[in-house]
Amino acid sequence: MPTIAETDRLILRFFESDDVDVIYEIMSNRQVMKFSISGPLNRKQANTFLDSILDTYTSKGFSLWAVHSKEDERVIGFCGHFFHRLEGKDEIELVYRLLPDYWGQGLASEAARAATDYAFNQLGLDRLISFIADNNEASKRVAESSGFKLERETHFYDKPVLVYSLEKKA
Ligand SMILES: CC(C)(COP(=O)(O)OP(=O)(O)OC[C@H]1O[C@@H](n2cnc3c(N)ncnc32)[C@H](O)[C@@H]1OP(=O)(O)O)[C@@H](O)C(=O)NCCC(=O)NCCS
């Protein structure tokens, strides 16, 4: 499985078609999906979600990466990048979701920093954004730990969200 990045506790790697069970475990979890636009996904929707990740690797060269715990030797979430057309501009979003058993240990921040570094230094991107619900304090802290700053408020699928952003340093 091709590796994207390795940190002290994590390996970020490409998802594969046999990761469908863990995608379902993540995307069907009510706590994980509390702030999401869609809400928890059923198994069919999770299959479609994984298919879209795999298709986007082919069309864009990036998408969400599986976050693998070295200690537990399993995938514990994902972190990576989604393409959006926002207010007439192409934007790349940094996204992260971990299973609740792994929250509060600095793991999402560790994954987000690795994915941000990969985006700027391997993918050649020069700007990332993150959509964050105003009451999602954990997500704000993860974005801030990678250097993101609050830029503005917008609407995404008709819901108000904060846009955090980070430009690559020259
Ligand atoms: C957001 C999420 C990825 C954070 O994961 P995590 O591994 O617990 O994050 P970290 O341990 O790296 O914590 C980051 C910071 O948030 C803080 N934090 C964690 N949970 C918090 C909470 N519920 N309220 C306030 N702060 C919180 C931590 O103390 C830490 O602060 P610090 O940087 O000052 O030390 C996880 O909560 C999650 O998957 N949530 C559901 C999905 C989601 O909302 N994703 C973001 C939008 S795509």
UniProtKB/TrEMBL annotation:
Domain called N-acetyltransferase: residue spans: 10-170
Xref: Pfam families: Acetyltransf_3 (PF13302)
Transmembrane segments: none
Domain of life the protein comes from: Bacteria
Protein name as catalogued: GNAT family N-acetyltransferase
